[in-house]
Each structure stands twice: as C-alpha cells, then as structure tokens.
TrEMBL record:
Lineage, uppermost ranks: Bacteria, Bacillati, Actinomycetota, Actinomycetes, Propionibacteriales
Protein name listed in UniProt: CapA family protein
CDD domains: MPP_CapA
Cleavable signal peptide: 1-22
Superkingdom assignment: Bacteria
Membrane among keywords: no
C-alpha cells in the first residue's frame, strides 16, 4: 500500500478555545500577518511580464462510511474480520480522507453491560486491517464503545493511539472526548467532531471516560439545550481552524427511513454553526438526506459492516463520497452496496442500487 503523505493534527475543543496537538509532533505553522511579510519601498519598474495564472486548487476526495462492528457474528464468519472490507478497499484507499463509525470496543478486558448479546467487542488485532483498508479516522461517539466498561473504553482509545487511525468523539475524559480530529492533505484541512445522542456509553466527564454526548429524542429524553449549545460552540471553534468541518452524530430511531423532527432541527443547527457536512449513524438503515444552507445532512448511511442479517435494510447501505476543490465541497455522491452472508459489503448496481439509493430521498 502506498502511504499517502498526510499531517494528522488534533485540536482541543473545550470552552475557552484552547488548542492542543496530539496526532502530529509539529502543527502546521500559522501564516504570518500581512505586516510581517517582506515589503519594499522602491517603486517597481514597469515590465511587460504577464500576470501568472493562479494555480488550480487541489481536487480531493473525502469518503465516509457507516457503522462498523467487527465482533460477534462478523468474527464468527471471518477468520480475519477486517477482511470484510476487501471489496470496497480500493475506494477507501484512493480517498484522501476516509472516515467511519467504529461501533465496538477493541479490548479483551471488561464485562458486558448490555443485555443479551448486545455488547459489542472486537479483537484489537482488527486495527491492522482497518488501517490497511485505507481508513484514516474513526468516530467513537456511539452507544457501544462503552459496552465493556471504562477499562475497555480506555483500552480502545489507547489501541487507536498506537495505530495510524485517529479517534474522536470519546476518550478518557471530557477534554479528550471533545477533541476533534483534523486531517490535512495538500494544504486542505478537514476537521471531524462526533457526539452520541443514544446513551448507554457513559457521558464523558472532566474526571471520567465516555463519549461527548447530547441528550435528545428518541432515546435519551427531551433535548438538552445546554449540551447542544456546548457542541455548537465546539463546531464554531473547529470551523474557524479548518477548511471543511464534518460532524458525525450518533442519533435517531433504529430501523426507520425518516429522521424525527428534533433530529432534523439539530442537523440544521449544526450547519448554521459551521458544519459543511453532517453524517449520522445508529438507525442501521439508510435515511433521508437533507440540504440546508448549501450543506448536506446525511442522517444515516446504514451499516457498513455489521452482523444484522434479520432484515434486508440492515444488510445494505451507502458510502458517501465528497469531492473537494481546495477548501470547498463541490459534489457529494453515494455508492450503494449490500453485505453478503459473511457480512462483506459488495457494491451493487441496477435495480438493487436504485432501491438502496431510494432510501436517501429526493434531496440528495
């Protein structure tokens, strides 16, 4: 695999706007103010040299995939659970930025907290396969990263720190959970922030591990407006530091096509705060895409790799691909796929593709 050159920066998102860097030993230098640039008082001699054409902005690809769970039935069906990514790996590897939602712990420790077999854990060895598949960062802001308790959650964060994958959305404490990932390629900086609105994973606190959280329907009660304001402030701060801001909420009602009214409103508020792209997870079905103030709100991409073979909709989804021209998203497209009996996603075409894409609605 050809390793793409990329600086990984981490910016601290806390009230007060303190900046910390934790993915790159040296942050990109800030540009000098205009009054520090080299100038001369001499009157330039007129010349006939034509103005040089401005260079074209870099054209980059951002790829986002849905919920990834490599434990339980996926591990039973595959000696190497990460091998399930092999058919869509070329798409991920070609991307300049590739991100997904990792919906399990990566630890062999802890005791299950969810009822029945609803506690999700994958072997830490799958990390090498995720990196090889081309993923650059993963959101941990979901309701399953805490399934095996605080120790396993911290193990997961530590394992990701040792890998080439950047994690965001959960951490050892609130400071770490609120810290976004910032990826840079060809001078273009893309920032990612995640939050969990489903509960189950503990809410990160100043002294305790968990996920950055917002209480909201349908799972965690009425909308907590102060928690939402905290996230909106974080989005504003992030948008001032990067060219493209991506927010990944874990929200909504499972097994439905349509987002609820509060979810729709929160998506719009995120855009108004500075998000260029909102990509949700948790419903396990493809949900409607909205547009607001020129930004795309993809409420759910569906499962990417998950052992939910009890209905057709949970075995299919879409890969979101955004084309960037310099600091702007100029196009968003969707690649449909369906998982086979080993929970391996494979691209689909024809009538099957049209049916999967229909779940996105008419606004995409």
């Amino acid at each position: 695999m050809a390793i793409r050159l990329r600086h990984v920066l981490v910016s601290l998102l806390l009230a007060g706007g303190t900046l910390a860097c934790a993915g790159s030993p040296t942050p990109s230098p800030a540009p000098r103010p205009e009054d520090e640039r080299s100038t001369t008082d001499a009157t330039p001699t007129p010349t006939s040299v034509p103005d040089a054409a401005a260079p074209a902005p870099p054209r980059l690809k951002l790829v986002v995939v849905g919920d990834i769970m490599l434990g339980r039935g996926v591990a039973t069906a595959n000696a190497d659970p990460a091998s399930t990514l092999r058919h869509l790996r070329p798409m991920l590897r070609r991307a300049d930025f590739a991100v997904g939602n990792l919906e399990s712990t990566l630890s062999r420790r802890g005791a299950p907290r969810q009822p029945g077999d609803d506690s999700f854990a994958a072997d830490p060895g799958v990390l090498a396969g995720l990196v090889d598949a081309g993923l650059d960062a993963v959101s941990l802001a979901n309701n399953h990263v805490g399934d095996y308790g605080d120790t396993a959650l911290v193990d997961t964060v530590a394992a990701l720190e040792r890998s080439r994958l950047v994690a965001f959305g959960a951490g050892r404490d609130l400071e770490e959970a609120a810290r976004p990932a910032i990826l840079e390629q060809d001078g273009v900086r893309v920032g990612f922030l995640g939050f969990n609105a489903i509960g189950e994973t503990p809410e990160a606190a100043p002294g305790g591990p968990g996920a950055l959280s917002v209480s909201m329907p349908p799972r965690t009660g009425p909308l907590d407006r102060e928690e939402l304001r905290r996230v909106l402030r974080a989005v504003r701060r992030l948008s001032r530091r990067v060219d493209v801001t991506v927010v990944m909420p874990h929200w909504g009602q499972q097994y439905t096509r349509e987002p609820g009214p509060v979810q729709t409103m929160v998506g719009r508020r995120l855009v108004e705060a500075g998000a260029d792209l909102v990509v949700g997870g948790h419903p396990h079905w493809v949900q409607r895409v909205d547009r607001h103030q020129g930004a795309v709100i993809a409420h759910s991409l569906g499962n990417f790799v998950f052992d939910m073979d009890f209905m057709p909709e949970t075995m299919e989804g879409v890969v979101l691909t955004a084309t960037l021209e310099g600091p702007r998203i100029v196009e968003v497209d969707y690649v449909p796929y369906r998982m086979d009996s080993t929970f391996t996603p494979r691209r689909v075409r024809g009538a099957t593709a049209r049916r999967v894409l229909a779940g996105l609605g008419s606004r995409r």
